[in-house]
């Protein structure tokens, strides 16, 4: 398992042990899977399972320390553009974003949440004098 990107403001109770089984909510109720990698997205952490499914942190069941969502202003233009290129590449490859728990859907959800937060924060900023 690859560790999550280090962030100085986050002190998780885990890194997860390799081959740790997690439970999460899914369309069919609850499910389990073996964690291969935990990685930061544009907004939250995603748990990549050995079978290729991608589970967003907010669907993980049980007690774990959530570091919270990233702020849109913490995302660099380079990171955002790299995310956009991956989305275009996945679309060009014919991947279907309607396939839940798949990488394209996970990346698209992260990008939509980031975009929403970015515009929400911009709208609520006080005007500069």
What does this protein look like?
The protein has one domain (21-123). Mean pLDDT is 84; it is low at 1-13. The protein has helices at residues 77-92, 103-123; strands at 21-26, 29-40, 45-49, 54-56. The protein is globular. It is 29% helix and 20% strand. α1 (77-92) runs antiparallel to α2. Strands 1-2-3-4 form a four-stranded antiparallel sheet, with no helix packed on it. The chain is of the alpha+beta class and 129 residues long. It is built from two helices and four strands; from the N terminus they run ββββαα.
Shape designation: globular
Query: Span from first to last CA?
Result: 49 Å
Strand order, main sheet: write it out.
Answer: 1-2-3-4
The helix/strand order is: EEEEHH
- The residue ranges in which pLDDT falls below 50 over 5 or more consecutive positions are 1-13
Indicate the radius of gyration in whole angstroms: 16 Å
Let me know the average pLDDT: 84
The amount of beta strand, in percent, is 15-25%
Please tell me the total number of domains: 1
Q: What kind of sheet is the major sheet?
A: 4 strands, antiparallel
User: How many E strands?
Assistant: 4
Instruction: State the share of residues found in helices, binned by percent.
Output: 25-40%
| Number of helical regions | 2
Decide which structural class fits the backbone: alpha+beta
């Amino acid at each position: 398992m690859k560790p999550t990107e280090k962030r100085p403001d986050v002190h998780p109770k885990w890194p997860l042990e390799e081959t740790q089984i997690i439970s999460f909510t899914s369309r069919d109720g609850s499910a389990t899977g073996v964690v291969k990698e935990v990685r930061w997205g544009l907004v939250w952490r995603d748990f990549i399972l050995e079978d290729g499914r991608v589970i967003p942190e907010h669907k993980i069941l049980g007690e774990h320390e959530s570091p919270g969502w990233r702020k849109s202003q913490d995302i660099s233009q380079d990171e955002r553009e790299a995310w956009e290129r991956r989305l275009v590449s996945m679309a060009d490859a014919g991947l279907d974003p309607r396939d839940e728990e798949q990488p394209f859907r996970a990346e698209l959800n992260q990008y939509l949440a980031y975009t929403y937060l970015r515009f929400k924060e911009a709208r609520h900023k006080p005007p500069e004098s």
